[in-house]
Every structure is written in structure tokens, then in C-alpha cells.
């Protein structure tokens, strides 16, 4: 009886996890031309990128995901040759499921300004992110503190400084 109950609980957990990931949506909103609501399947249409990352305890990992620049470009955020003058005051707030937020200037996400590629990861070391870290997380390679490599990403909000 205990074995049957254990198997049933495992199957329920797998079903709930699978269902929640299937219904997951990443929103891209704010100062963009084409607001986006992306499923995990939509993200797979972007080229996959891998980056190396050292976590806060010093462990090395390889994360797989999608360039945040390409996702913002698809939404019509000001990137590339248009990112100049007043547009350099534009920024992105990455919002996580628990309310944690981090900020990036658009310039630090644009390959015209930096060689660092910030990704929205869905894999770590070749496996799907664990539930407490995913289904998506931002990975910012080469920062001394991994505080902006936030977990459970749900929205990217593009804003403009109006001062």
C-alpha cells in the first residue's frame, strides 16, 4: 500500500510540475513596440546559447538559454543602431515570481556595447532547471556577485527615464 501511495504521489508531482511549466508565460512589456507573452515553446524558436557561470559558492556550471537581447529585439525594444542619445536612458526591470527585481540598462544587454551575453536560461549543466530556480532564470556571466542572475523570471519591463 505504501509503495502504491508513493508512486501515486510521484506521478502527481510530475504532472503538476509538467502542467505548471506548460502554462508558464514570460511577459515582455513596457516601452516596446510589440509586447510579448512567450511560452517555453516560443523561446525554443530563438537560437540556443551556452554560457559559463560560477554560482555564489564557487561551483562552475554551464547554462543554456536565449539571448535577452534577441528577446527584447523581437518585442521592438530600442536596440542596435537606434540605441543612442536619449534612448541610452532606457532600462529593463527583470521581475521574478517572488517579487525580486533587478535592473539592467539596455546598453549593457546590447552586443553593440558589450561582448558579454546575458541569457534567459532554461537549462543548467544540460538539464532542465530545478523547480525552485526555473523554469527560467537570468544568467549574467562574469559579475563578481551573482545577485542579478535571478530565479523564476516572469517578466521583462522596458522603461524610459523621463527626467
Automatic annotation (TrEMBL):
InterPro entries referenced in this protein's UniProt entry, alphabetically: OxRdtase_Mopterin-bd_dom (IPR000572), OxRdtase_Mopterin-bd_sf (IPR036374)
A Pfam cross-reference name: Oxidored_molyb
Highest taxon listed in the record's lineage: Bacteria
Start and end residues of each Oxidoreductase molybdopterin-binding domain: 19-142
Name of the protein in question: Molybdopterin-dependent oxidoreductase
Organism, as annotated: Rhizosphaericola mali
Amino acid at each position: 500500500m505504501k509503495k502504491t501511495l508513493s508512486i501515486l504521489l510521484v506521478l502527481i508531482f510530475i504532472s503538476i510540475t509538467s502542467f505548471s511549466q506548460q502554462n508558464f508565460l514570460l511577459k515582455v512589456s513596457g516601452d516596446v513596440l510589440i509586447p510579448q507573452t512567450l511560452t517555453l515553446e516560443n523561446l525554443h524558436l530563438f537560437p540556443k546559447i551556452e554560457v559559463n557561470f560560477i554560482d555564489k559558492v564557487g561551483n562552475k556550471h554551464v547554462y543554456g538559454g536565449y539571448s535577452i537581447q534577441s528577446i527584447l529585439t523581437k518585442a521592438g525594444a530600442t536596440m542596435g543602431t537606434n540605441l543612442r542619445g536619449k534612448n541610452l536612458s532606457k532600462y529593463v526591470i527583470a521581475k521574478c515570481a517572488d517579487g525580486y527585481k533587478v535592473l539592467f540598462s539596455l546598453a549593457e544587454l546590447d552586443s553593440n556595447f558589450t561582448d558579454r551575453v546575458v541569457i534567459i536560461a532554461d537549462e543548467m549543466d544540460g538539464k532542465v532547471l530545478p523547480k525552485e530556480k526555473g523554469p527560467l532564470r537570468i544568467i549574467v556571466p562574469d559579475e563578481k556577485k551573482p545577485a542579478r542572475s535571478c530565479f523564476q523570471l516572469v517578466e521583462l519591463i522596458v522603461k524610459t527615464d523621463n527626467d
